[in-house]
Design a protein that fits this description.
single chain, 290 residues, alpha/beta, Rossmann fold, 14-stranded mixed β-sheet, 10 helices, 14 strands
């Protein structure tokens, strides 16, 4: 079992890392199941998630996982309680837990802590003063490896507390955005009037990523983490749409949105993780022997 957690209340890249690990193992021939979570949703019973499921039933991150994993022999399970989803997934060769950094009483075969390479510890404090789930020392004690996720894979000051032999990298590959079956590259996006609709905990992270590709949104509408559009949002979108040619969102946000908003098309950012060679070896070591 592989556990993939994050140090902050959202925005660490935990779910993309879980999917990247699952994809690597599936390509190696393993039957993989991801145990997701259904924040803000009501699955009622333990169930497998289908790409066509309603986001209100299975949750946005589990649904985004299922859509990403479609065709890769990766199953995604959710349930009212995580243990119920684990029990459903036990038939797989490898189970990947999206959420907890560690399990007990037996430890996971591999426990990973996904962190944003540019701001790994968020505000640096636990609630109510900050957004960290646990103190840094407790997090490092619980996990085997810290995985820094970013478009640049360079050591940074905030990660100096992580022993080098326990630090791994996953590079974000960004090619633009998908509108239906067409991928629009960064050059075309830079020449368009872009708006963003984001249902994430740290929308500034997405905006910062776009800026690195020369794309500056004219307007940004954050709906709140795991939340779809409310009635006031639709009114704002109609007003904001006057200044944009198209909307951009993440795969998670897209589970809450139609393909068009206020007469403008909605594109899904094409973000994927490339696991570094050492992390690839660590994950493949969890694969069952042939």
């Amino acid at each position: 079992m592989i556990a993939v957690g994050g140090p902050t209340l959202g925005g660490s890249g935990r779910t993309p890392l879980a999917v990247a690990c699952a994809s690597l193992l599936a390509q190696a021939g393993a039957r993989v199941a991801i145990v997701g979570h259904a924040y803000g949703a009501d699955p009622r019973v333990a169930r497998w998630v289908r790409p066509s499921d309603d986001v209100g039933t299975v949750g946005d991150e589990a649904l985004a996982c299922a859509r990403k994993a479609s065709g890769l022999s990766i199953a995604v399970a959710v349930a009212p309680k995580r243990q119920q989803a684990v029990d459903l997934a036990r038939g797989a060769d490898i189970v990947i837990l999206d959420g907890p950094a560690q399990i007990s009483p037996l430890r996971a075969s591999l426990s990973l802590l996904a962190v944003d390479a540019s701001s790994p510890w968020g505000a640096g404090r636990c609630p109510p003063a900050g957004d960290m789930r646990f103190p840094i020392a407790a997090l490092l004690d619980a996990v085997d490896l810290v995985v820094a996720i970013g478009e640049r894979v360079e050591p940074t000051g905030p990660l100096s507390c992580v022993p080098p032999h326990r630090l791994r990298w996953a590079r974000i590959q960004s090619n633009g955005a998908w509108f239906g079956g067409r991928c629009v590259g960064w050059a075309e996006l830079r020449s368009a009037r872009v708006g963003m609709v984001l249902a994430t905990a740290r929308p500034h992270r997405i905006v910062r990523s776009l800026a690195s590709h020369g794309v500056t949104p004219r307007v940004t509408l954050p709906t709140g983490d795991h939340r779809g559009l409310a009635a006031p949002d639709h009114w704002r979108l109609r007003r904001l749409a006057r200044d944009v040619d198209l909307w951009l969102c993440t795969e998670k946000c897209a589970t809450h949105l139609p393909s068009e908003l206020a007469g403008r098309p909605v594109g899904v950012l094409d973000h994927a993780l490339e696991l570094g060679p050492h992390l690839t070896e660590d994950v493949l070591a969890c694969s069952p022997s042939p």
